[in-house]
Structure formats: structure tokens, C-alpha cells
């Protein structure tokens, strides 16, 4: 075990002299829902969200990025500014698992070859897919599970700021809205066609959800030649 620790320490020390092009780490923060149930505030996290993130930096200005995030989307009419929603008093909590893949663009060069302190705003977009539970509200307003799950495809739109806090660690803060091609996340449109009579709200407007939080990634890898990209 002593030799293994010495080897790992030597490996980490040797890496400080090389540039890094890969990142892996964690996302931690909160989530909120925007749809036909609950508050319509765009940034109002009310449930914990956490997951993992991987990046492949192809140049100082862009990187391929993949992530998985878990959360329980929650929306409660009693916290809405709309008096009609407060009177209706619907509410739900929907377990959600999201996988996302896309590209991250930095406003300024964020060269991982340079070990000096640096920071930059960034944008991320791509495609996301989220697995969620299906349910509906019956005629008495009771939440009723359909005992099925569905996948909601979406487009992530994320704005953030990241800074290198050491030669190997990068800390970021971001807010990412997801526009989905589904109206089923809040139970306003049941998944089963024969339950169509239980639909409510604006059925022409799809659901959104938002992740707000922090990322912490570890960088590693050999120095590439960015001139080819």
C-alpha cells in the first residue's frame, strides 16, 4: 500500500508539468420546474440535484461535454403567484434522471496548457434526454400514478462561469434551463391516450426545468496540438 501511495503521488506531481485536456467531476445544486403546475419563477431551486460531468477540451474555446444528473422535480400550486393555481392546489414530485451531450463554448480562451489562474464565462448546449415517472390528476385533483415511465428529449441552454483554482481543479457555477419536447412531466397530459380527459393547462406549451449549481472537475491528459482543430 505504501508503494502504491508513493506511485500515485509521483504520478500526480509529474502531471503538473503537462497540460490537461480532459475533465471529470461532479455537479451539485438544485432544480425547479416550469410548466402547468406550481410557481412560474424561472430560477427557483427547491430540490437537490446532483450528478457527474465529463469534458473533452478540443481547443481553448470549446469542449465536448457529457453529464448525468439526478433530481426530484417538485412543483406546488400553493407557492404560485397565480391565484387560480393556488385555489386549484395541485402538487407533485417527479423523480428524474437526465443524460446530456453537447458542446461548451467559452467567451475567452481557457487554455488548460497554462497553469496560471484564469476564468471565463461559458455557454453550453446540445441535447438532453430525461427519464421521468408518468402520472395524472383525477377529477378530484388526486395525483394518480400511471405506473409507467417515459423519456423526454430536450435542449439544454446553460450559462456559467468557471475558474481554475489549482493546476488540476476547475470550479464552475452555472444555470441551465432545459426546454423539453414533452408536456407530460407535470401530469397535465397523461401518457395513456385513453386518459386524455384528464388533460389540463396549456397543452400547446411544453415543460421546462432548470438546474442551478456548481461543478468541480479534475483535469488530466497529455498536451495536444490545438493547431489541428
TrEMBL record:
Keyword Signal: yes
Pfam families membership: DUF6089
Keywords noted in UniProt: Signal
Membrane-spanning segments: none
Signal peptide: 1-19
Domain DUF6089: 4-227
Name of this protein: DUF6089 domain-containing protein
Amino acid at each position: 500500500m505504501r508503494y502504491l501511495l508513493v506511485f500515485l503521488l509521483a504520478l500526480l506531481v509529474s502531471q503538473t508539468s503537462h497540460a490537461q485536456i480532459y475533465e471529470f467531476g461532479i455537479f451539485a445544486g438544485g432544480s425547479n420546474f416550469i410548466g402547468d403546475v406550481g410557481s412560474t419563477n424561472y430560477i427557483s431551486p427547491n430540490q437537490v440535484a446532483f450528478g457527474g460531468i465529463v469534458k473533452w477540451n478540443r481547443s481553448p474555446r470549446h469542449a465536448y461535454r457529457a453529464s448525468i444528473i439526478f433530481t426530484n422535480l417538485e412543483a406546488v400550486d400553493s407557492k404560485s403567484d397565480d391565484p387560480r393555481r393556488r385555489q386549484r392546489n395541485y402538487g407533485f414530485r417527479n423523480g428524474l434522471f437526465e443524460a446530456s451531450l453537447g458542446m461548451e463554448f467559452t467567451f475567452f480562451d481557457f487554455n488548460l496548457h497554462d497553469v496560471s489562474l484564469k476564468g471565463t464565462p461559458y455557454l453550453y448546449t446540445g441535447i438532453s434526454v430525461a427519464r421521468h415517472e408518468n402520472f395524472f390528476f383525477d377529477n378530484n385533483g388526486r395525483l394518480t400514478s400511471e405506473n409507467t415511465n417515459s423519456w423526454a428529449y430536450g435542449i439544454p441552454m446553460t450559462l456559467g462561469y468557471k475558474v481554475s483554482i489549482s493546476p488540476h481543479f476547475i470550479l464552475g457555477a452555472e444555470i441551465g434551463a432545459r426546454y423539453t419536447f414533452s408536456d407530460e412531466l407535470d401530469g397535465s397530459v397523461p401518457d395513456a391516450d385513453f386518459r386524455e380527459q384528464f388533460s389540463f393547462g396549456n397543452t400547446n406549451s411544453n415543460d421546462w426545468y432548470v438546474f442551478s449549481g456548481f461543478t468541480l472537475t479534475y483535469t488530466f491528459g497529455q498536451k495536444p496540438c490545438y493547431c489541428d482543430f
